[in-house]
Amino acid sequence: ITAVAQVLVQLVYFLHMNSSSEQRWNVIAFIYTVLCIAVLLVGSVWIMNYLHYNMMI
Known about the structure:
Layout: H1 2-14, H2 24-56
């Protein structure tokens, strides 16, 4: 819980990620980066689970 709070504080106060028009492109780039990392992580876990399932057959 405190790690999530720390990440939010860092994003808002250090990286100045807010809803102002000057920061909109930075927020969009951050969201794109988070989505890419999420796709890589979920895809990797899915592939490893599928490989584990095939090894048990």
